[in-house]
Amino acid sequence: MKIAVMSCIHGNYEALNAVLSDIDKQRAEQIYCLGDLVGYGPHPNAVVEMIRSLDIPTCQGCWDEDIVEGLNACECSYPAVLAEQRGKLAHDWTNQAIYPEVREFLAQLPLSLRDDNLCFVHGSPHNQHEYLLPEVNAFVAMERVLATGADVLFCGHTHVPYVRTLDDSQIQIRVKQMQNPETELQFSTPLKRIVNAGSVGEPRHGRPNATYVIYDRDTEQVTLREVPYDYQKTCAAILEKGLPSIFAWRLARGLEFAERADDPTHVCER
Amino acid sequence: MRYSSNSDLPNITLVSGPCGAGKTSWIRQQALAAPGIYLSLGAESAVDMAYLTAEVPDLTVLPTSVLSASVQSASNLSKLSELLEHPPAEAVYIELSPQLDLNSLPLDLVTACRRIAVLPPGLRQTRWHDWTDLVVTGAEITGAETSLLSSPPLWNRVLTGQVFDLSSLNTLWYELTQGAYGTVRRAKGIFDVADGRALYWTFVAGQPETAYLELNLPRWLQGRPERFSGLEVVGQGLDQAAVAQTLQDCCLSEQAIFYYQQQVKDLLAQGEAA
Q1: Are B43 and B96 in contact (CB under 8 A)?
Q2: How far apart are CA B165 and CA B158, in angstroms?
Q3: CATH code linked to domain B12-137
Q4: Neighbours of A177 (CB within 10 A)
Q5: Average pLDDT over residues A193-216
Q6: How far is residue A251 CA from its own chain's centroid?
Q7: Which end of chain B is more exposed for a tag (fewer CB within 10 A), N or C?
Q8: How far from A121 is each of A6, A223, B100, B249, CA to CA, in Å?
Q9: Measured between CB atoms, which of B171, B175, B239 is closest to A80?
Q10: Could you tell me which residues come within 8 angstroms of residue B220 by beta carbon, excluding any fewer than 6 positions away?
Q11: What architecture is domain B154-270?
């Protein structure tokens, strides 16, 4: 049985349509979405309506959270002042554009989803704002997967897709507490995987094409899909809706609008 | 860059060529060996002047205000005539902007000076070839034969007093030079950044991207810098309002400037104490 996992649509309806068509062709029987339905893109309401109408299980992304809770994340969200200015602009525009029922839908999204030995989150199991980059150290990566109790952790947020296999490994930890002797624990872990679905609507891999993944539950095979779509339509809509033209320029080149935090594993203390 | 020397060199050197060919770099090279006086004619570049001031401390860079305002229009070069009548002992480097009509220069000036044209390799039969005593092979420029020979418009913005977030500046520079705000053939800028350094950025279309250069200036750690910083852009169809907005969005607030300057001062003090 094949499942499709997608993330980070960011109000890009054209890209979402193209990905849904491709999922049809791949004959996936179930779709999961890892959040960030809104933000930066020109069609937040249409994207949410599509996800709702198809009843796609979705977890809440950091942008979805910000639209519900307001921009009160700590400084981790915007490490550069330019990214912060642009992010705030996009946030204000989206905040004004979305319908009340869309905001309500975003508010009730769960932080994670679970399906047997698969777990689905936006950033990491700890926080929607945390980046699980492919180069994050093995201990941190393993800890994040073990925290879920799953064998495969699907995430997004980085906008660059990847598959990381954490081979059978042995973890050694040393616990030191005041007034207690130091204790050392060792345990083995079976093979785990982190699968990042990339981004449907705001890719950061140098091309405008949307990305998502197909996972075959029987063979455990992961296929990263890259889907061309008419990104010029989205660019035109960005300009038409009065969003900054630089968003369109960056979208057309596969450059994310903002940038990731200096310390990607920083856990937001909002 | 190749330069063929001439044993009978006059003291005053006129340097011309298309933008991005390396006129200022050539003058810097010469002035390091034989410092003297530098001035520019035509659409003067405050960035070049600040760059040379920082990089060649022994060079006297004459600001525009020293010359009469009309000199900059190239229609009245009386100050330069004075320079010819009473030539200083040291070398004088006069950089001519690409926008300047070489035929508008007075004959007595042209004939009394050494004329250098810094040109991209392979460029032939241009107005500079008719004018120059010596061709210096400069940097390669894409499309030099066409667009650079017709003087594209120059846009500049003085940024003195602004302090930039370096990460944001990197994004701005990438977008500017990759065409996000119009076709840019040449861009150069000096920016003060949060840790007190002044950085020189330069871009020429078709040339490999280079890292910014830290100028030979002391760190500015006492509030808003009171030294020159600014950006100059040569290109076509430039969305000036968008560039200006992005520049503004890259600037640090008063509070952030104070915070970062304090951090750097503390670090420097710790280093001295150790």
Answers
A1: no
A2: 17
A3: 3.40.50
A4: 8
A5: 95
A6: 17
A7: C
A8: 11, 19, 61, 32
A9: B171
A10: B192, B196, B198, B227
A11: 2-Layer Sandwich (3.30)
pLDDT of residue B53: 94
CB–CB contact A80 B167 (8 Å): yes
Backbone angles phi, psi at B119, to 5 degrees: -125, 150
Q: Give me B235's structure tokens.
A: 């290109």
Cβ separation A81–B171 shorter than 8 A: no
Q: In chain B, where does the domain assigned CATH 3.40.50 lie?
A: 12-137
Query: Is A259 a domain residue?
Result: no
Residue B243: phi and psi, rounded to 5, are: -65, -45
Residues of A in contact with B172 (CB under 8 A): 82
At A44 the three-state DSSP class reads helix
- Using the Cβ of A136 and the Cβ atoms of chain B, whether some distance falls under 8 Å is answered with no
Can you tell me the distance from the alpha carbon of A8 to that of A63, in angstroms, rounded to the nearest whole number? 9
| Residue ranges making up the domain that contains A12 | 2-252
By the CB < 8 Å criterion, does A245 face chain B? yes
Longest Cα separation, chain B? 63
B173 in Cβ contact with B166 (< 8 Å) = no
Cα A262 from Cα B101, distance rounded (Å) = 49
Chain region(s) in chain B for CATH 3.30.1220:
154-270
Q: Which residues of B74-105 are buried (b: 16+ CB within 10 A; e: fewer)?
A: beebeebeebbeeeeeebbbbbbbbebebeeb
- Measure Cα distances from B145 to A172, B133, B142 in Å: 66, 20, 8
A92 inside domain: yes
User: For residue A100, what are the contacts with CB-CB under 8 A and spacing of at least 6?
Assistant: none
> Which among A81, A204, A257, A259 is the top mutation candidate for probing chain B, defined by the most B β-carbons within 10 Å of its own β-carbon?
A81
Q: Do A246 and B246 touch (CB under 8 A)?
A: yes
Residue A265: inside a domain: no
Collect all residues from B whose CB is shorter than 8 A from any CB in A. 165, 167-168, 171-172, 175, 178, 180, 239, 242, 246, 249-252, 256
pLDDT in tens, A51-88: 999 999 999 999 999 999 888 666 566 778 998 899 99
Nearest CB to A246; choose among B168, B180, B251:
B180
User: φ, ψ for residue A215 (rounded to 5)?
Assistant: -120, 125
The number of domains in chain A is 1
Of A79, A85, A245, nearest to B249 by CB-CB distance is A85
Complex ipTM over 0.90: no
Q: Distance (Å, rounded) from C-alpha B269 to C-alpha B274?
A: 9
Cβ atoms of A25 and A174 closer than 8 Å: no
Which pLDDT band holds residue A264 (cuts at 50, 70, 90)? low
The CATH code of the domain that includes A70 is 3.60.21.10
Place of tokens 């935090």: A261
Phi, psi of B255 (to 5 degrees): -65, -45
Domain assignment present for A139? yes
DSSP SS3 for A130: coil
